Amino acid sequence: MDYFGDGSFYLLDTPGHAIGHLCALVRTTTSPDTFIFLGGDICHHASIFRPSKHLPLPDSISPNPMSWKDEKNPSYQAPFCPGAAFEQLQKERGFSVDEPILQPTFGYDIPLALHTIGKLQEADVNENVFVLIAHDKFARDLVDHFPKSLNDWKARGWAPKLQWAFLKDFELYWKEKGVC
Q: What rounded mean pLDDT belongs to the chain?
């Protein structure tokens, strides 16, 4: 629903997690058109919609979401890619490498939530859409807060910085596998 009728703010019906759950798509710039997808409780962790068949895990991730740094050169931070360890993790759990790490485990209608998350994954691959979900603890320290504007999110590089930051939550696993 185009709330104001001018293409600046859309309410999106995103059922599954809760009855009547809504998300929003907010236009932040024109020429090019950029948007922030305000995901609310569509899911509670980015690993529930990433990676996906639309946005697979990249060959390297920069900035590196892990805390590992080269002690000989403190300004250097290696690119991070869990590669084979991620593939092994997914295989051990019966998942493919183009599926998210986690699945939603609670909500009003899990099959419907999975369908809705699939639609989110389609939006997530668009470089002009910045996906923010309510419970993303990594956004708290990266993204400005009210009353500051979010309109320049693309120029500030927030989307690529936040996109794979959630992998830090799996740092113990990656260290166990010798990835970081």
A: 90
Would 109 be classed as within a structural domain?
yes
**Residue 18 within a domain:** yes
Residue 168, classed as helix, strand or coil, is: helix
DSSP of the chain: -BSSSSSSEEEEE--SSSTT-EEEEEEEETTTTEEEEE-TTS-SSGGGT-S-SSSPPPSSBSS-SS----TTSTT----B--HHHHHHHHHHTT--TTS-S-----SS-HHHHHHHHHHHHHHHT-TTEEEE-TT-HHHHHHS--TTS--TTTTTTTHHHHHHTGGGGGGHHHHHHTT--
Task: Give the structural domain span for 113.
Answer: 9-176
pLDDT digits 0-9 by tens, 100-152: 999 998 899 999 999 999 999 999 999 999 999 999 999 998 999 999 999 99
Cα separation, 14 vs 120, whole angstroms? 9
